[in-house]
């Protein structure tokens, strides 16, 4: 069964949080590596860097540069070792799908741009399951017929 993760899934995989145990369980049931796009990796890395910035301004927020660097090293190691596999979507088709999703759902459901792009990428890749901990993205993926594990 084909799977596509979102950024919340990667965050739970690479930094301990409430959903990390579930993320680990989901990864354990995958027979193959998880596919990731350049968009997904960019958003994840941006998120890590932003958390490091927050910590630099206020130590009660975000996380340290050392922790951020460790997260990014682990991500790179998993890319190198095949835990994650780069996929190359046809971005014009992803954008076409995203436009359709935006037209169908944004006004009534309030989906964000990045959420629509991740779901559109999953649809483009033929994913049957979508790994997310984001409730809004979950609703969008399910509305499009994908299974989102609990």
Topology:
Blueprint: E1 3-5, H1 7-14, H2 20-29, E2 34-36, H3 38-57, H4 65-80, E3 84-86, H5 91-109, H6 113-124, E4 129-131, H7 135-143
Parallel strand pairs: 1-4, 2-3
Word description of this protein:
- This protein is mostly helical and 150 residues long.
- It has a domain at 3-86 and 127-143.
- Helices cover 63% and strands 8% of the residues.
- It has helices at 7-14, 20-29, 38-57, 65-80, 91-109, 113-124, 135-143; strands at residues 3-5, 34-36, 84-86, 129-131.
- The strands form 2 sheets. Strands 1-4 form a two-stranded parallel ribbon. Strands 2-3 form a two-stranded parallel ribbon.
- Helix 1 crosses helix 2, helix 3 runs antiparallel to helix 4 (65-80) and helix 5 (91-109) crosses helix 6 (113-124).
- The longest helix is centred in the first third of the chain and has 20 residues, at 38-57.
- The model has no long low-confidence stretch (mean pLDDT 93).
The parts where pLDDT drops under 50 for at least 5 residues are: none
Question: Number of helix segments?
Answer: 7
Q: How many whole angstroms does the radius of gyration measure?
A: 15 Å
Care to count the β-strands? 4
| End-to-end distance | 16 Å
Structural class: mainly alpha
**What proportion strand?**
5-15%
Helicity level: 55-70%
The H-and-E topology, N to C, reads as EHHEHHEHHEH
Task: State the strand order across the main sheet.
Answer: 1-4
Largest sheet: 2 strands, parallel
Could you tell me the mean pLDDT? 93
Shape: globular
